[in-house]
Design goal:
This protein has 505 residues and is α/β, with parallel strands linked by helices. 30% of the residues lie in helices and 19% in strands. The longest helix is centred in the middle third of the chain and has 20 residues. The termini are far apart.
Length: 505
């Protein structure tokens, strides 16, 4: 095992496999480290002139801001962003998918719902139209005590999903549309067998407007009420508790049954990334997604600001011109949006990302895009928009993990897979979240929170494809009911965060 990791022959930097002291010889590259270089950080393998591109993954990740000698630590002090042309070449790299024959495809044990959708969990949800009903929703969920749920062993729980918006906002536009799509997407999510939707009564985001806009019908397993009409907080909580008690016997009758892996829709996410993310966990997740797509399933990449600079690698795989153009349009929207709000697209990486070895958003994006694997880009969707195509797709969202995943779940994801290098304790209800560690040191330190150690790739103990197969098997096991580390610790009730866009009035 060498002291460094080379990702492409054309690269002029390599990644330190472990902490290197100044003076460490690197025979595989024919250079000596001139500086102390932390694990996961980059080392120049040849001189790089000021203004010359710095290349990793055989892609531009930045430009030398000063002359760089071979053996020098390459990071924020000598590598910076710069403009360069991206060749979008829509559809140029599209290729046929080698699908597994239907009779040979993988399967899992899921909940087949009456509308044909498939759940991986069996929850009852309490949703809120506005923050003003958030406390009522939490009290309703708490009122269905553990001793009551103990009589219904096939119910995973009652979860209140509350948020901080719903009023003081425009009744039209991006922010309003985002919230309505998120609420509708969760109300119809196959991991919820029953829903109680609670409002205040006078909010901008009226429950009746939501039901009318999306053609939602009230019924025994979709109940609505508002505090003003029900008679106050206490009456609302009692009414909500009684509605759920009435649902529970039927919800408990649900049983898992064999369903094809084509019914899996996996939200692909990364947070707390480091220099290993694009080397271990992200490409391993990409290998698992390739396997999922070949079995007829769907992988959903998101976090638009975190594919910035790598979007051309996705447009080249687009199945048609319209799909490629939709992704480019979303990139342009973000450029305008950040500029209008006094920001810039290169507001990433975060301090933790930089400490882990990521220098520019280009470098972070190239690694993040690897989560999507290598198959065609089958569709591009707005935040929380229902996904109606199988295969690898993209959903527009911020890079803020809980907000992004809230949209992916609303779009139909029934499983979440989350890579992390610095560490994350994210969880989600009603959708289980599998967490992948990028390096062995962090995995050992946060083992109670990590489901798979992808650091074995950097350790030389496993290949990307081997770990990808392990992740795919984990998809099937968790979708069949095996608890993730975050589920075992009860995470997931505070991570429901719809994307707020627009003025708060």
């Amino acid at each position: 095992m060498t002291l460094s990791i080379r990702l492409a022959p054309e690269d002029n930097v390599v990644v330190a496999r472990l902490d290197l002291a100044a003076g460490t010889e690197m025979p595989a590259e024919g250079v000596t480290a001139l500086d102390a270089v932390p694990a996961g950080h980059k080392i120049a393998t040849r001189p790089i002139a000021a203004g010359e591109p710095v290349r990793k993954y055989d892609q531009i990740i930045g430009f030398a801001s000063e002359p760089v000698e071979a053996g020098t630590h390459v990071h924020v002090h000598n590598c910076a962003m710069g403009d360069f042309e991206r060749d979008y070449a829509i559809g140029q790299d599209m290729k046929p998918v080698d699908f597994v024959p239907e009779g040979a495809r993988a399967s899992f044990q899921g909940y087949l719902r009456a509308n044909g959708s498939v759940g991986t969990r069996n929850y009852v949800g309490v949703l809120t139209s506005v923050n003003c009903s958030a406390t009522a929703a939490r009290f309703i969920a708490d009122a269905v005590e553990d001793r009551i749920l103990a009589d219904y062993p096939h119910v995973d729980g009652v979860v209140a999903l509350t948020h901080s918006t719903g009023c003081g906002m425009a009744g039209a536009g991006d922010g309003y549309d985002n919230l309505q799509r998120v609420l509708w997407g969760h109300a119809r999510h196959p991991n919820f067998a029953g829903i109680v939707l609670v409002g205040l009564g006078c909010e901008v985001n009226q429950i009746d407007f939501l039901l009318e806009a999306y053609g939602i019908q009230r019924g025994p397993f979709l109940q609505t009420m508002n505090i003003q009409e029900t008679g106050g907080l206490r009456s609302t909580v009692e009414r909500g508790r009684d509605l759920i008690r009435d649902m529970l016997p039927e919800v408990d009758r649900a049983r898992r049954q064999p369903v094809a892996a084509s019914e899996l829709t996996v939200a692909l996410q990364c947070g707390g990334s480091d220099g290993y993310s694009g080397i271990t966990a992200n490409p391993a997740l990409g290998a698992a997604v390739d396997k999922l797509v070949r079995n007829g399933g769907t992988g959903v990449l998101a976090e638009t600001p975190e594919i910035y600079g790598a979007e051309h690698l996705l447009t080249r795989r687009a199945v048609d011109e319209r799909t490629g153009r939709k992704l480019i349009e979303r990139i342009r929207w973000w450029e305008d949006y950040t500029q209008r709000n006094g920001g810039e697209m290169n507001n990433n990486p975060s301090p933790g990302n930089k400490a882990g070895g990521l220098t520019t958003i280009l470098e972070k994006s190239l690694g993040a895009a690897a989560k999507g694997g290598t198959t065609n880009l089958a569709g591009v969707y707005r935040y929380g928009e229902p996904i109606d195509r199988k295969g690898f797709v993209f959903m527009d969202s911020p890079g803020y993990d809980p907000c992004s995943i809230t949209g992916q779940v609303a779009s139909g994801a029934n499983l979440v897979c989350f890579t992390t290098g610095r560490g994350s304790v994210y969880g989600n209800k009603p959708v289980p979240s599998i967490k992948l560690a990028t390096n062995t040191e962090m995995y050992r330190r946060l083992e109670e929170d990590m489901d798979v150690n992808c650091g074995t790739i950097a350790d030389g103990a496993a290949s990307v494809q081997e770990v990808g197969s392990e992740i795919f098997d984990k998809f099937l096991a968790v979708a069949s009911g095996a608890a993730t580390k975050s589920e075992a610790q009860g995470l997931g009730t505070a991570e429901f965060i719809p994307w707020q866009v627009g003025a708060v009035m």
